[in-house]
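Re: that chain you flagged

S.,

Sorry for the slow reply, it's been a week of failed gels. I finally had a moment to sit down with the sequence you sent. For the record, here it is as I used it:
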Amino acid sequence: MVNIRKLESELWESADLLRAGSKLTSNQYCMPVLGLIFLRYAYSRYKKVEAEILKNRPTRNGKMLPVEASDFRAKSALFLPREAQYDYLVNLPENIAEAGIMGKDGKPIGSIGEAVNNAMSLIEDQSEQLVGVLPKSYNEFTPELLNELLRIFNNSALDDIGGDIIGRIYEYFLSKFAPVVASDDGVFFTPKSLVKMIVNVLEPKTGILLDCACGSGGMFVASGDFVNNFGMNANSAMTFYGQEKVDYNAKLAQMNMAVHGLSGQIKSGDAANTFYHDAYNLAGKCDYVMANPPFNVDKVKAESCTKAGRLPFGLPAVNKKSKEVGNANYLWISYFYAYLNAIGRAGFVMASSATDSQGRDKDIRESLVQTGHVDVIISVGNNFFYTKSLPCSLWFYDKAKKKELRDKILFIDARNYYTVVDRTLNEWSRWQLKNLTAIVWLYRGETEKYQKLIAEYHEVLGEGDFAGIIQALESKIAKLRQEAKEAVEKAAKREKKKTQGEWDEKITAQEALLTIAKDALWLYEKFGDGKYADVLGLCKVANLSEIAEKNYSLTPGAYVGVAPAEDDGVDFTSRMQEIHRELTKLQGESNELMATIEANFKEMGL
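Prediction finished late last night. Pasting the structure tokens below so you have them in one place:
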């Protein structure tokens, strides 16, 4: 597993180099660094796709046919000319001016900065959507500085990270260099697990997909992966449209899509401000809408919103004096609904407060619920956002809901279901995402998908009941730990660290299986062989009359209730006595150590 934090610290080191070696502002040097990350990641994907192409490559006259740009387009991947490949740039001679290297314009290249600029231009020639997007200011940096940056990003860890890497790293830079921008107007990067959950529930396969607050394009990337994994070509099956007010973010989205072999239209600037513009005239035409809009935006001009339309339930509350919308959450909530066609689905992130806000918000929510098109609401706990600790909700619409579900909404309270990444960051693991999605499948009556997931668990874990598998794995791990301890004790001093590492790998592999087994048991205990049931504290299917009784609140916790506390079988009094004895022992050892240190200092005359 890639150590994301370690990778980020290396990126921070590179940014420090830029800051020390140039007079650029943080915004000016952020994009060139991201351009290098783009080059490195594009090269990583290029090599993987190239290997796939070469597997069954035909030959002519005994020679394998050369790989061409069309081969990469067929696999929705970005072709890189040799001079735009990362290893070419990293291995350029020290004195480039004397090497006789020519640029795409036919002129000699005299520095590493010109070589990188040339690489960016060559890539733009391969992708129409990248024209004018990639940075080409690398000749402003000293050769020493740029070579060091290339070295830093020549990191194998970048080969192992999938998904929206550019968006995540971009947000890391914002959090370090421009925290004011990172949180401006409620804008922040969408965590990968939330994006995947939205895609899992919506299941995009064909048609028009709009993200009208697209940021760095993570929704497009995840949707493209979903379609491709379904056995289809994302560029043929889907049409991607994005609006992004911030030009920097729009460029990142275009870079992100290109590196994943996706094509689409993305507009930025004032004309792409979704509050006032339907940039592609897509109202009522979208098969899918996905977004993580900025939360709680204020001072939105009410008259301009009204003229722009897309308000099927009317305006939220307007300040009579300023004639501005005081909180734009329900503008977004209305827009997402208005963009859908007759069978469209929408999924978006929203501030938790929006599920039961009052006044005009409540009136809009009531009208929305009565359409029968609200499908699923999921509560998400704290610390999912990379720079924010706030909780949120995921909302889903489905205009093609089955008749028997039209007057029902599935509520899931997932605030206590997550994996801790570190002290400030939580996420849903791959299997936790599958489990949450499985609840949606069962609510929709898609039992076969649930059963395939149970079969997938058994493929990984082996046959048998999950409780028994857990017990066997726990015993195996305990035995491995004892064997590791004995092996390390017996090992020669110079071999101890190596021996410990080898045993740690074995233990970690079994612990990973144990985690999967616990997720399998979590799901199976609740839904058995595949029948949906309300689970106290987790999920509840509520009908419209129940929702009306709760004043049209869409807060999952108001419906699912509170799960009973689990008895962990530990006697509290005994455990506290045990902890007290351990603490007393440690305190005694500490006192002895301090006394020894003090005696040594006296002997030294200090």
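What I noticed first: The first strand starts at residue 59 and ends at 60.

Talk soon,
D.
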